[in-house]
Amino acid sequence: MKCKALIVEDEILSREFLSNMVREHCPQLELAGTASTVDEAVQMIETLSPQLVFLDIEMQTGTGFDVLQRASGHKFHVIFTTAFDHYAIRAIKFSAVDYLLKPIAYDELQEAVAKALRQMESTGEDNRLDLLLKNISRPAGDDFCISLSTSEGVDFVPLSTIIRLEAKGPYTIFFLKDGRQIMVSRNLKEYENTLQEYGFFRIHNSNIINLKDVKRWVKTDGGYAIMSDGAMVAISPKKKEDFMTLMTKRMV
Fold first, then answer.
1. Is the pLDDT of residue 71 over 60?
2. Residue 89: which of 59, 132, 50 has the closest Cα?
3. How far apart are CA 26 and CA 7, in angstroms?
4. Which positions bear 4-aspartylphosphate (predicted)?
5. Number of folded domains in the chain?
6. Does residue 237 have a cis bond before it (omega within 30 degrees)?
7. Are residues 51 and 66 both part of a single domain?
8. 93 and 211 share a domain?
9. What is the pTM (predicted TM-score) of this model?
10. Is 122 exposed, middle or buried (0-12, 13-18, 19+ CB in 10 A)?
11. Structural domain of residue 237, as residue ranges?
C-alpha cells in the first residue's frame, strides 16, 4: 500500500513542481492533495489523514509551525521545504526532522522520502514534532533541547545539561550533569556537526565534550581534559591544536 502524502506550499509554481517530482520520482507515495494556506492545510490534514506532509516553512498566511500547532495529534511525518537557510533550520536539525532546500533535487527528495518511510516502520513513539515545537517556542536565551530515544522512551535534554558524549560501538552514551547516562542507538558522528556550534568539541575519536564543563586541562601524558564529572578524556594528537585554541578563547 502506498503512503498518503500532502503538499503544503503557497507558491503555485513550487507546488506544481514538487507535485510533479513526487509523482515522477516517488512511486511509494500517493499524492492525496495540495494546500496553499495554513487553514487549508489544517483542514486537509484533518480530513485526509496523510502519513507524510511536505510543509513549506514560510507562507503568506503564516508558517508551517502554525500548521503543526493547530493540527491535532501529529500522527504524520513531516518534511519541511524552504527557499533559504531559515532561522528555524537549527531547531529542525535538533529535532531530527528532515528538510529540503529549494530548488529541490530529485535525489534529495528520494532520500528524504526513503528516510521518512523507514521511520514510519518504527514501532516506537515519535515525539520529534513535539520537540520541534518546544524548540521553536523556547524563550529567548533558553537552551535548545535534543531528543534522545531509548528503549524506555524519549528524553528531551537541554544542551547545557550535557557534560560529554562517548562512543560505544554503534551507540552513543550521553553523560548528564544530574548523573544520568543515556545510551542511544546512533553513532557519535551524527551528533558532531549538530553540536559543534554550541560549545561542543570532538576531542577524540570516541568522545565529544562540552567545553564549558572542562575543569582542568593536563598537558602531560599525551594530554587530557578533566571534566566536571571527574572523567579524564584523552586529547587526540590531531585535535590538540584546535582544542588549545578553543580553550584559550574560553579563558579570554
1. yes
2. 132
3. 13
4. 56
5. 2
6. no
7. yes
8. no
9. 0.71
10. exposed
11. 138-251
Using DSSP's 3-state secondary structure scheme, residue 115 falls into helix
Q: Each residue of 222-244: pLDDT tens digit?
A: 899 999 999 999 999 999 999 98
Mean of the pLDDT values across residues 58-73? 90
pLDDT of 252 > 60? The answer is no
CATH number, residue 175: 2.40.50.1020
Mean pLDDT of 20-32: 97
pLDDT reading at 219 higher than 90 = no
Give the C-alpha separation, 235 to 200, whole Å: 14
Phi, then psi, of 190 in degrees rounded to 5: -65, -25
Mean pLDDT of the region 76-93: 84
Residue with C-alpha cell 587526540? 236
Residue range 153-182: average pLDDT?
93
- Please report the pLDDT score of residue 124 as a whole number: 59
* Measured distance between the N- and C-terminal CA atoms of the chain, rounded to whole angstroms: 60
Q: Give the long-range contacts of residues 208-217, CB within 8 A, separation 24 or more.
A: 208/164, 208/165, 209/163, 209/164, 209/165, 209/233, 210/159, 210/162, 210/163, 210/164, 211/246, 211/247, 211/250, 212/160, 212/250, 213/163, 213/164, 213/177, 214/247, 214/250, 217/247
When computed from its CA atoms, the radius of gyration of the chain, rounded to whole angstroms, is 21
